[in-house]
Amino acid sequence: MGFTLLIQTLSQDPAVSIKSALRIVHFIGLALGLGAATVLDLLVLRFLVRGKITEDHWKVFKFGSKVVNWGLILLWATGLGFLTYYGAFDPAKLGNEKIWAKMTIVLILTVNGGFIHSVILPRVKKQIGRSIMEGLPSSHRSVFIVSGAISAVSWYVPMMLGALPQLNFAVPMGTILVAYAALLGSAILFAHALLFVVPTGSSEEASEDVALSAKFA
Fold this sequence. Notes:
disordered C terminus; mainly alpha; 217 residues
């Protein structure tokens, strides 16, 4: 009886039920992607500071990246679903520039995700047995940093935009993207600053460098 009542209640207004279903799946995608991306960023930071990557660590990176991918797929599916819903039931919402700013940021996030899978992950696999930045030229370390910053910022900004309904129809898309770019730039600068205070080579390499310097002095 209770289940029947639930079905009857949900079927009273199909449009509202569709929107609610989209929200639920959207939140699931955000939780999966944001959670997994945060864990991966923390792991990168951990291995940036100390420790060597093992085969098990690599498997965690690979699995976490797959979870992030599923989060992105759900975000795109529900995002396009929302656009379709608004077009059919609430066309005025398509004039909300915050929606298009979120879509733009998710697009950047998707492109960065493809780059991580095609370039970053294979590079991480090659670092098994070493720290994540050990032996890498400065240009490669910079790419790691920029990609990680894009991932972190681009997952959190859409979440924050969704939590700020007062921005609906109030702030132009360009203003939101400028704020996003400023936040992203700050994150990249901060992450690069870590490279000056965190050693990227192993202690053995550091000892060898000291010995060589002494030998040729």
